[in-house]
Amino acid sequence: MPTKILLVYYLIINVVLFILMGIDKARAKKDKWRVPESTLFIVSFLGGAIGGLAAMRVFHHKTRKSSFLIIYIISLILHCALVFLLFKNNYI
User: Cα separation of 28 and 75, whole Å?
Assistant: First the structure.
């Protein structure tokens, strides 16, 4: 059961970041209010790095800002390590 909960959590948080990046891209094109970069970074560190990386590719958004790529990759590595430790120690 905990494994399913973790998978659902990661699925949801990644979809959330993907959607936020899509919204931000659409608003950038229309010169409207944008999603704060700090929000995108926070959602990434909450586990949404894969969704952020996918959105960068799909929407061609934030691709010139190396900080996004670096933050998303660091976040992804940290979450992979966390999940590995949880499985290794039989917490899930």
Answer: 25
